[in-house]
Amino acid sequence: MSDTDMKSSNVVWHAPVTTREARERRNGHKGVIIWFTGLSGAGKSTVAHALEDSLHSMGCHTFTLDGDNVRHGLCGDLGFSDEDRVENIRRVGEMSKLFVEAGMITLTAFISPFRSDRDKVRELVAEGDLIEVYTRCSLEECEARDVKGLYKKARAGEIPHFTGISSPYEEPENPEIVVDTDKHDVDECMKQILTYLKVNGFVNTNGV
Ligand code: ADP
Known about the structure:
Elements: H1 20-27, E1 32-37, H2 44-57, E2 62-66, H3 67-72, H4 82-101, E3 105-109, H5 115-124, E4 130-136, H6 139-145, H7 150-155, E5 177-180, H8 186-199
Parallel strand pairs: 1-3, 1-4, 2-3, 4-5
Helix pairs in contact: 2-8, 4-5
Bound molecules: adenosine-5'-diphosphate.
């Protein structure tokens, strides 16, 4: 949110004494957002949680913000209209930014179908602080998986604005990583991201 959009005027930014850099030094790894985007059922949550488990085992400080979980609380007042989806991603973006300041490896699993919303999140943080992971899977395969039975309901017209059926999904143009979950298994997708984190110095190659 820009300063001009803010409703409250008498608020002054208070610089932290314990800095992000100090936290990262202590953690032994960088704070970063790993932003999973893709169709429902593409595997965002599955890969994110598998990756978090690996990172956690290595001693990294992590947290996963998951679409459905966030809608139980922070975004419980939002639906799936275009307007509400935009606000949902804005809130998650701001929240993720705070987690990065806290030095955490922050994994987010949201369909986040609109390119402009994902770009806004990227603009919230410094360059290199966000790794976009396009969790790619054909609509046919997602529909065949139908993990939550939502595609069936959407086809029956019971769920309005369902991404891929009655609402668009805009593919990322320049994601840092693409994992093809209909070609590779969960472990391969997870390791692909882990390798990226190691090669690019987000975590040490010998653990943290
Ligand atoms: P999303 O979070 O994108 O809605 P989920 O992770 O909830 O998707 O569901 C993905 C489903 O696809 C799970 O049932 C998972 O076991 C299955 N699946 C099969 N192959 C893969 C893969 N390579 N990566 C992730 N999930 C996969």
